[in-house]
Specification:
By secondary structure, the chain is an alpha+beta fold. The chain has 4 helices and 11 strands, in the order H-E-E-E-E-H-E-E-H-E-H-E-E-E-E. The strands form 4 sheets. Strands 5-6-2-7 form a 4-stranded antiparallel beta sheet. A 3-stranded antiparallel beta sheet has the order 1-11-8.
């Protein structure tokens, strides 16, 4: 019985010692650092929808989608935009193009997506396409070309801000800051707000050399604010 009691006490002592060793008794300070920056989007994704139309009231002379597409493609090439930045975005309406022989008044549509870094090039493209064949144009989205490097820069600044904060807090109580024991990264805000659209008139010439007017969007891009935060645990010496 005494042996059993002795073994039990010994086991409890060993477990208590092991538990004490597993507990981190170091003094710590936990702080959050943040960094932010404002950028203007420099990549714009434009959407253009082309639609066939009749030149006459009798619905016999049609400007076909193929001709409109050639105009758009030529304009893209003349604007020195890489062809990989010019793609078909929607062909749902165009899928029934073969039916136009059965339905003479059928008007085919095709939607395109163009990636530009200069809005003047987009205006140049729109001015080179038959305005009557442009059904709609709008902004499909936009981005910032140096986003990844900016993320890295902000995260580093956030960590340095956390270290600075922890330093003056520990010095305020007469202590010294030790090494970092842990870093936890928070998700940053990377969403782009919707751009504001305003109407303006761009003068264009038709085949008859008469001035025609087409409504085009002017974009007021608001700067995007990016904020990143990190949580850092430091040892206090």
């Amino acid at each position: 019985m005494k042996k059993i009691l002795l073994l039990s006490l010994l086991s409890m002592f060993i477990l208590s010692a092991a538990f004490a060793q597993s507990v981190d008794l170091r003094r710590k300070i936990e702080v959050t650092g943040s960094a932010e920056a404002e950028v203007t989007p420099d990549i714009i994704y434009m959407s253009i929808s082309l639609k066939e139309y009749f030149k006459d009231n009798n619905n016999k002379k049609k400007v076909e989608i193929g001709e409109l597409e050639r105009q758009l493609q030529t304009a893209v090439l003349n604007a020195v935009i890489p062809m990989e930045n010019f793609t078909i975005d929607n062909i749902s309406s165009y899928a029934n193009w073969l039916n136009q022989k059965k339905t003479p008044d059928f008007l085919a549509r095709k939607q395109y997506r163009i990636k530009v870094t200069d809005l003047n090039k987009f205006n140049q493209i729109m001015a080179a396409v038959d305005p009557k064949g442009i059904e709609a144009s709008n902004i499909a989205g936009y981005d910032y070309s140096k986003m990844e490097s900016l993320k890295k820069e902000l995260k580093i600044k956030a960590i340095l801000a956390a270290k600075e904060k922890a330093t003056y807090l520990t010095e305020a109580i007469g202590e010294k800051l030790g090494s970092a024991l842990g870093i936890r990264e928070y998700s940053g805000n990377e969403s782009f707000p919707q751009p504001m659209l305003y109407n303006s008139n761009i003068r264009m010439r038709g085949d008859n050399s008469l001035s025609e007017t087409i409504v085009m969007p002017e974009i007021d891009f608001k700067k995007v604010k990016l904020i990143y935060q990190v949580n850092v645990v430091f040892e206090v010496k």
